[in-house]
């Protein structure tokens, strides 16, 4: 039996004495795309922090590619799991190719001979996100959307089989949002990646992910196929909007059309 790419069992975590995640269990199969959705402050980024180990869990346990989280060194973990955080601070004084090269660190030996071997995956990642020609531009001088694509190229260059992407479409215009989501979809198929994304746009989450996991107040509200999860009740009760939900003729995925903020009782 193959083990899941990533799972969490009765996970709890928080900040100092403030509990945020309560008894979260989830399992993500290899090759699956899971989208985490939930209102602001529901615990999505905190869950990513607990899954990657940047925040210590206060209870439960996490398995990453068949091993308990923490059983690998940071470098070994980075070969298996890549995290694109939400709006990372722009690094000063480095170029796009230097930033993307940082994605190759887990694969480097102690000697720097391997840098030549890293040039091809770096160039490929830059081209995939549409930044060919920007290699020598300073990251801090890029537009928000260009910079976000540079971070995405760094994640691609890391060549890990499991991706955690926290709002990867931030700063992108609508066309670039879809280009990026389609790129993730294609790379997942070509490379057998497991993808977990935080997405605020519920329609994009429902369009691209195999499964949606809804968080609110640090607990799992729903976990299932987009057509089972996205309902007018869920949108009213947990996202605070009155919306209609229909099935798109072309994609056969649910689409919601929000009309107004839901009035609280
Ligand atoms: N470093 C921190 N210290 C203390 N509390 C924090 C910290 N980071 C987040 N929190 C709190 O934890 C809760 C969950 O935050 P988190 O960032 O995980 O939510 P989120 O679902 O990712 O939200 P958003 O959609 O707004 O990005 C919030 O109440 C937030 O204020």
UniProtKB/TrEMBL annotation:
<keyword id="KW-0472">Membrane</keyword>
<dbReference type="GO" id="GO:0005524">
    <property type="term" value="F:ATP binding"/>
</dbReference>
<feature type="domain" description="ABC transporter">
    <location>
        <begin position="6"/>
        <end position="242"/>
    </location>
</feature>
<dbReference type="InterPro" id="IPR027417">
    <property type="entry name" value="P-loop_NTPase"/>
</dbReference>
<dbReference type="GO" id="GO:0006826">
    <property type="term" value="P:iron ion transport"/>
</dbReference>
<keyword id="KW-0067">ATP-binding</keyword>
<keyword id="KW-0408">Iron</keyword>
<dbReference type="InterPro" id="IPR003593">
    <property type="entry name" value="AAA+_ATPase"/>
</dbReference>
<dbReference type="InterPro" id="IPR017871">
    <property type="entry name" value="ABC_transporter-like_CS"/>
</dbReference>
<keyword id="KW-0813">Transport</keyword>
<dbReference type="InterPro" id="IPR051535">
    <property type="entry name" value="Siderophore_ABC-ATPase"/>
</dbReference>
<keyword id="KW-1003">Cell membrane</keyword>
<protein>
    <submittedName>
        <fullName>Iron complex transport system ATP-binding protein</fullName>
    </submittedName>
</protein>
<keyword id="KW-0410">Iron transport</keyword>
<dbReference type="GO" id="GO:0016887">
    <property type="term" value="F:ATP hydrolysis activity"/>
</dbReference>
<keyword id="KW-0406">Ion transport</keyword>
<dbReference type="GO" id="GO:0005886">
    <property type="term" value="C:plasma membrane"/>
</dbReference>
<dbReference type="InterPro" id="IPR003439">
    <property type="entry name" value="ABC_transporter-like_ATP-bd"/>
</dbReference>
<dbReference type="Pfam" id="PF00005">
    <property type="entry name" value="ABC_tran"/>
</dbReference>
<keyword id="KW-0547">Nucleotide-binding</keyword>
């Amino acid at each position: 039996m193959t083990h899941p790419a990533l799972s969490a069992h009765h996970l709890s975590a928080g900040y100092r004495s403030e509990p945020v995640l309560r008894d979260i269990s989830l399992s993500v199969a290899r090759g699956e795309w899971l989208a985490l959705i939930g209102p602001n402050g529901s615990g999505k980024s905190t869950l990513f922090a607990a899954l990657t180990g940047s925040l210590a869990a206060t209870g439960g346990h996490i398995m990453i590619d068949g091993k308990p989280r923490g059983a690998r060194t940071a470098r070994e973990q980075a070969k298996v799991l890549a995290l694109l955080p939400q709006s990372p601070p722009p690094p000063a004084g480095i170029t796009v190719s230097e930033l993307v090269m940082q994605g190759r660190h887990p694969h480097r030996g102690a000697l720097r001979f391997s840098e030549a071997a890293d040039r091809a995956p770096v160039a490929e990642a830059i081209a995939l996100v549409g930044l060919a020609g920007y290699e020598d531009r300073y990251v801090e001088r890029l537009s928000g959307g260009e910079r976000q694509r540079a971070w995405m190229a760094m994640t691609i260059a890391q060549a890990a089989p499991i991706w955690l992407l926290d709002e990867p479409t931030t700063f992108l215009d609508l066309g670039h949002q879809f280009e990026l989501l389609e790129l993730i979809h294609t790379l997942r198929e070509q490379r057998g990646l497991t993808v977990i994304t935080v997405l605020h746009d519920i329609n994009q989450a429902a369009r691209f992910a195999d499964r949606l996991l809804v968080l609110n107040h640090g607990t799992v509200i729903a976990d299932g196929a987009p057509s089972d999860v996205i309902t007018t009740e869920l949108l009213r009760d947990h996202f605070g909007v009155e919306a209609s939900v229909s099935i798109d003729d072309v994609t056969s995925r649910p689409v919601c059309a929000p009309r107004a903020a839901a009035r609280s009782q």
